[in-house]
Amino acid sequence: MGQKILLVDDEEGIRKVLSISLTDDGYEVFTAKSGKEALHVIREQQPPIVLTDIKMPGMDGIQLLKKIKAESPDTEVIMITGHGDMEKAIESLQFDATDFITKPILQEALQIALKRANEKIFLKTKIREYANNLERLEEKYHSLFDYDPNSIFVLQSETFEILDTNARCLEVYGHEKEELLGKSFMDLGTAEYSDGVLSKTAPAPSTPCSVYPKIQHRRKDGTTFYVNVYTCQRKRTKQYGIIATTVDITESLAKEAQLIQASKMSTLGEMAAGVAHELNQPLSTIQIGTDVLRNMIKEGKKIPDAELALVSEQMAEQVARAVRIINHLRQFGRKAQIQPEKVDINKPLEGVFTLLSQQLKLQSIQVVLDLREDLPRIMGDSNRLEQVFIDLVINARDAMEDRKKQLAGSDLSNTLTVRSFTENSQVVVTITDTGTGIPEEIREKIFEPFFTTKKVGEGTGLGLSISYGIVKDYNGTIEVESEVGKGTTFKMTFPAYEEEEGELQGYV
Hints:
This protein is α/β, with parallel strands linked by helices. The protein has 3 domains: about 5-130, Rossmann fold; about 150-250, Beta-Lactamase (2-Layer Sandwich); about 255-505, Heat Shock Protein 90 (2-Layer Sandwich), CATH 3.30.565.10. Helix content is about 45%, strand content about 25%. It is built from 14 helices and 18 strands. The protein has helices at about 10-25, 35-45, 60-70, 85-95, 105-130, 135-145, 165-175, 175-180, 250-300, 305-335, 345-360, 380-405, 440-445, 465-475; strands spanning about 5-10, 30, 50-55, 75-80, 100, 150-155, 160-165, 210-220, 225-235, 240-250, 340-345, 365-370, 375-380, 415-425, 425-435, 475-485, 485-500, 505. Strands 11, 12, 13, 14, 15, 16, 17 and 18 form an 8-stranded mixed beta sheet that branches. The protein has a 5-stranded parallel beta sheet with strand order 2-1-3-4-5, sandwiched between helices. Strands 7-6-10-9-8 form a 5-stranded antiparallel beta sheet. Helix 9 (about 250-300) runs antiparallel to helix 10 (about 305-335), helix 9 (about 250-300) packs across helix 11 (about 345-360) and helix 9 (about 250-300) crosses helix 12 (about 380-405).
């Protein structure tokens, strides 16, 4: 019999059709129509893979996943979700789900998920064998090296010449082994490693291992993909000095980009009323100017040249203003690039108030912008940074509105203060509100995915976690200081980008 697999779904038709497909692929298929029945089958048959629907009566897929991991941590669980349950599917990854696939189930997507599950099972098996047979350490090392699902390179420690590779490396990069041996690891991509194990100029690293996230590499056919590079230096010798592992993250980056774009669309929905107010201002001026000219023409009056010039000038200015708002909205809605570029941090900050200033004004929120003009550039993406700042401003707006409701009837003024400046050769942005503040007991949780204090349907809890990830992507930090009843300050710090004699300074 083939490998055991358990299929859990309350829909009989789905169970029957998937059972036929999986049996044809060589699996021994067990089925269950509920979470309770699934747990009974798992205890009886111990299948290494479980394929379960998320939305089921009684015990849903997330609850079942938690129980499976509690009883059988090595069981690989693949979630099946409808498009309406994407939030639940993403949440399942936090609880160690192997992957998720969407309905209608495509055979290719199912095969990819099953391949990933089998690779993890295979790797766990190898690691377990390795731990139980220490006397065969060298043999097991080679086994892991040859069968690891990630690409592994053995490098010379001074020139980074490739001395050996595993089979997975040849599959991913499309080269024959002979083509890679003797080649510099640096030739696989365009990255400049300014610090750590792979730096040629930086001092020796304080630890023997370094991590380089989101590095672009090239295959033999010229196509590009993204990897995380993990390096460990064994010792400074001319032979077998560095072990470098590259993990293909192209697919996960695509999912991350979809999540960020979904959050951005949600933000646009939040801003809809504010953008409408912003556009109403220039449209009102244009309408008034049009009415003036039409009425004077209708009454047969000659329009004085001075008045005509004034009205037409005002209308032209307001058309230009409306065009700027619309173009900025379109720019914000586009997908951002993965590769960072030099950015003036003030530009995305100013963009926030192109879209939100009128809304904040109508909500009686005074905005204080204190932006230093001669700031050094940072490495990032203006579009994604603007998303971070907009999310923080919207959160500040909501906190100030909540405080106004709590203190209804009092003479309350709300102020939003946004500053940019330098501190210790770093570029800093602070966003301060006079809202309700964040209680100390939840302050450390606010950047966790799906954590939210808003009511169901009012927020996904993804905004701050996505903002945290974007800031980290650009080597920045984000901190929060808050006092209940007085307000909150978010402080973001980024390394400055300075060019001096062709070298990067301050971006490490």
